[in-house]
Design a protein that fits this description.
Blueprint (H helix, E strand, L loop, with lengths): L1 H26 L4
């Protein structure tokens, strides 16, 4: 259960990071 929870949290963190990065990339000028 602990392992599954940790894995799920890592997925959420990675997903959140990807979303933030994509949002920043779309807002900030590229290059």
């Amino acid at each position: 259960v602990f392992v599954n929870r940790s894995l799920a949290m890592e997925k959420i963190k990675c997903f959140g990071f990807d979303m933030d990065y994509t949002l920043a990339a779309s807002v900030l000028p590229v290059g």
